[in-house]
Amino acid sequence: PFNGPYLTRCMASSELNNGHLLTPEADSADAIPQQMAGLEPVQRVPAKVNPVATARSKKSQCARTMLSACLLVSSAYFGAVFFHGACIPLAFLAPPVFSFLVSSFVHLWTKLVEVIFSGILRVQVRQFGDAFVEPFSEPRTAGSSITLLNHRTRLDWIYIWCLGTFPHYVKIVLKAELGRLPGVGWAMQMANFIFLKRKIANDEKHMKDVVDYLLRLDGQVHVLMFPEGTNLCPESIASSDSYARKMGRPLLRYTLHPRVTGFQHFVKNIGSRLSYVYDVTVAYPFAMPENELSLFLGNAPQEVHYYVRRWPISSIIGRSAGDSCPNDESTATALGAWLNERWLEKEQLLKEYYLKPPAERQFPDEVVREGALIDAPSHQPWGPGAVLVLLFWILFSLFCITLLCVSWPARLFALAVNIFYIVVNVQTGISEWVLQKANEVEKRKQLATATAAVKKDD
C-alpha cells in the first residue's frame, strides 16, 4: 500500500499529491498554478496499486523486522563495548592501527545492514545513472569524493549501504543527537562519522579536523552529506518555503532548498585530494516508511531507487584533481550556484518520477551495484559472503551475551566502557576525543623527529 501510515499522520497539516507534499498555503486555488506549473490534476491520495498483504504475510514481515532490529541494535552495542572498547588504548599508542580496527568493524556492521535489508527484509535497492569509482583505486593524492543526497525520509542513509562496495567506505554527516545513541552512535563516532550541531560556527573546526585526520591516515576521504539538513516533511517544507520567498527562489515540493555552506567547507577542506562529487537522488516507487517506528512495525519499502550522477571536480570549479583548490569568494559562489542548480534539476526529476504510475517509476540507465552481497532481485540465493556476515554477527552477539552472564570481569569491563562513553560524550564528544588523542600522538612524533634532527646536527 502507498505509504498509509505516513498519510494518516500528515494529512491534518498537508496533502500528499502523488508522491509530493503540498502545504496548506501551497494547496490553494491560486497558488498551485504559480508554484507547481506543469502538474496535471491528480487524486489527493494515490490509489493502492500493490496487492494488499495478507494478515499472515504482514505478521511474518513484522516478525522479521523486529528480529532484524534486535540483531542490529545488539550487535552495534556489543561491538562498541567489547571490540571498540578493547581498542581504546590504541588511540593513545597507535592511532593508525586504532582507526583501521574500529573502521573495519563498523564496515563489517554495515555489511550486516546490507544483508538484513536486501536479504531478510527483501528491500530491492536499485542503482541508476553512473557507477561509483571504487575507493582507493586512485593514488593517495586524489580519489576523495563528496556524495550529496536528498533527504526524503529519515532512513535514506541506511538503505544506501545496499548499493555495493562504495557506500561502506563513506563517512556520513549526521545530526549530533544521533551520535549519543548507545551502541551505533558510539561506534560511528569512534569510526569518525561526522556528527554536526548544524551551526557552522561550531561545526567548521570539527569538519576540518575530521577531514585532516582521515587524509593523514588514509590519503582519501569519502563524505556523504544531506545538503537539505533535514528530511522532507510539512514542517521542513514550510521552513524551506519561507527561505525561498525571502531569497526570491521557487517553491519546492519534492526537495528542500539546500544549504550550501557545509558543501563549500568540505570542498575547501578536502582541497586538492577531491576528485569527484556524486549527486545522488533517492526515491521510493511504492511504500515509503517515514521513520524508524514505521520500519520497525514491518513497513519496509519494497524498492528504493538511487540515481547517481558523477561529476569530476574539474567540471564544477575548473580545476583538476591534484590541483590546489582556490579558497576565494568566487569559488564559494560557484559551488553554491552549482549546488542550487543540481537541486532544481532534482526537483524536476522527482516530479516526473512521481507523476508515473508506481509500477512504472524508475530512473534511466540502471547499473550493476558493484560488490553487493546480495544480487537483485533480492529473492535470489545468498552468496557465501552474505551468509558469513550474518552468521558472524549472530555468533558474536550470542557470545557477548553469554560472556556477560557468566563472567563478572566482563561485566565490570562493559560497565567501565559504558561510563567512559557517557562521560566523554558529555565532556567533548567521542569523535572529538579520538581526534584529540591522534593529534597529541602526532605532535609527540613531530617533537621527537625535531629533537632527533637537532641532535644529529650537533
From TrEMBL:
InterPro entries from the xrefs?
Acyltransf_C, Plipid/glycerol_acylTrfase
The Phospholipid/glycerol acyltransferase domain sits at: 145-264
Q: What is this protein called?
A: Lysocardiolipin acyltransferase 1
What biological-process GO terms show up in the record? phosphatidylinositol acyl-chain remodeling
Identify one Gene Ontology CC term for this UniProt entry: endoplasmic reticulum
Describe the family membership recorded for this protein in Swiss-Prot or TrEMBL: Belongs to the 1-acyl-sn-glycerol-3-phosphate acyltransferase family.
Q: Which gene encodes it?
A: LCLT1
Q: Tell me the superkingdom of the source.
A: Eukaryota
SMART domains of this UniProt entry? PlsC
Protein's organism: Schistocephalus solidus
Transmembrane segment boundaries: 66-92, 98-117, 387-409, 415-435
Q: What is the lineage of its organism?
A: Eukaryota, Metazoa, Spiralia, Lophotrochozoa, Platyhelminthes
Q: Which SUPFAM superfamilies match?
A: Glycerol-3-phosphate (1)-acyltransferase
Assigned keywords, A-Z: Acyltransferase, Membrane, Transferase, Transmembrane, Transmembrane helix
**A Pfam family that the UniProt record links to this protein:** Acyltransferase
Which GO MF term does the entry hold, naming one? Answer: acyltransferase activity
